[in-house]
Amino acid sequence: MDADLLHDLYQDLILDHNRNPRNRGALDRPDHRAEGFNPLCGDQVVIELEMVGDVVAEARFNGTGCAISTASASLLTEAIKGRTVDEVRALFDRFHGLVLDKPRRDERSLDKLEAFAGVSRYPARVKCATLAWHTLLAALDGAQDIVTTE
Predict the structure, then answer these.
(1) Low-confidence ranges of the chain (pLDDT < 50)
(2) What is the CATH number of the domain that holds 32?
(3) How far apart are CA 27 and CA 33, in angstroms?
(4) What is the DSSP code (8-state) at residue 41?
(5) Distance, CA of 36 to CA of 76 (rounded, Å)
């Protein structure tokens, strides 16, 4: 596939998830919850999870932020449903490596999340892309403090 076409496709995916975020809203009875804040640009996110054992049965987010932050939270909620906690942590590592342009040893495809590969060229935007992910880990860990990107 042509590199420009692939770039456009990924840009369209990010814009679509910003305009029409999936899984936005609160859960009735979340098992895990955490709040995140990016003081650099003001992005705010809340991640809520319902677990069945160690599997993410449901994931939702709420908050305000830029297109990258909102799309990342939306795609995150889609990507983690049905995964175990260990699989979610491994996915975090792979996504984090992608946006930092430091791929991990596990080179499996990140599917739609690969849309964020270009973020590595814009260091300030890395924090926008990873805010929801760091907040997700805080939710899994039961952290009470607000997660920040600083």
Answers:
(1) 1, 5-6, 8-9
(2) 3.90.1010.10
(3) 10
(4) T
(5) 14
Domain of residue 17, residue span? 3-148
Candidates 36, 44, 79, 42; CA nearest to 59 is 79
Q: Across-strand partners of 33?
A: 48
CA–CA distances in Å: residue 22 to residues 60, 108, 123: 8, 24, 26
Total domains, the chain: 1
Which residue in this structure is represented by tokens 């607000």?
146
Spatial contact of 150 and 41, defined as CB atoms under 8 Å apart: no
Q: What is the pTM of this model?
A: 0.90
**Token pair for residue 6?**
């692939």
Predicted pLDDT of residue 105: 62
Tell me the pLDDT of the chain averaged across its residues. Answer: 90
What is the CB-side half-sphere exposure of residue 13 using CA atoms within 13 A? Answer: 18
The pLDDT value recorded for residue 78 is: 97
Pair of tokens at residue 78: 């889609």
